[in-house]
């Protein structure tokens, strides 16, 4: 995909990013989204006041259309979502590649145990499960900690 650009989000683009984030969560985590019942206003407030303030938000831009997003804080990927219409086209891989460039000594992330599509994706990209647990309330769902440590990284080295 030659016209795919991975870049930092501009503040004016937050509505488009939130739209992708909501559509993707509904597609991948419908069981959780139905239970949590977040309104669009709830999501916008959480994104603006938490996600965008605590992370660098990277977007996948294809010809001016936002097709994916990744929130990254230090070497932790806190959100990685691709618009359902764009999944399977290398968008998620391109975002992960950018994270690996930024943090060549390793990355970590959590995903829900019920999200087997995400597990398959991360495992194809070299991530391994290092812990099973429960996500914090109000979700309180079984989750997995995934870590990516390239061969050249020293144990415990998280420079980036």
Give a concise summary:
The chain has helices at about 15-30, 30-35, 40-55, 90-100, 115-125; strands at about 5-10, 55-60, 65-75, 75-80, 105-110, 130-135, 140-150. The chain is an alpha+beta fold.
Describe this structure in words.
The protein is an alpha+beta fold and 160 residues long. 36% of the residues lie in helices and 30% in strands. It is built from five helices and seven strands. The chain has helices at residues 14-28, 30-36, 40-54, 91-102, 116-124; strands spanning 4-8, 56-62, 65-73, 76-82, 107-112, 128-134, 142-148. A seven-stranded mixed β-sheet has the order 1-2-3-4-5-7-6. Strand 6 (128-134) and strand 7 (142-148) form a beta hairpin. Helix 1 crosses helix 2 and helix 1 crosses helix 3. It is globular and about 45 Å long. The model has no long low-confidence stretch (mean pLDDT 92).
């Amino acid at each position: 995909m030659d016209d795919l650009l991975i870049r930092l989000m501009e503040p004016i683009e937050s509505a488009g990013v939130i739209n992708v984030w909501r559509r993707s969560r509904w597609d991948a985590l419908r069981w959780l989204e139905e239970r949590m019942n977040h309104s669009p206003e709830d999501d916008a407030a959480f994104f603006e006041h938490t996600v965008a303030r605590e992370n660098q938000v990277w977007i996948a831009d294809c010809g001016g259309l936002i097709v994916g997003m990744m929130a990254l804080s230090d070497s932790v990927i806190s959100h990685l979502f691709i618009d359902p219409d764009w999944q399977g086209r290398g968008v998620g891989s391109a975002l992960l590649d950018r994270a690996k460039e930024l943090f060549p000594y390793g990355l970590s992330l959590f995903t829900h145990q019920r999200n087997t599509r995400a597990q398959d994706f991360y495992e194809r990209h070299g991530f391994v499960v290092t812990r099973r647990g429960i996500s914090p309330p109000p979700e309180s769902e079984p989750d997995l900690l995934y870590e990516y440590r390239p061969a050249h990284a020293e144990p415990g080295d998280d420079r980036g």
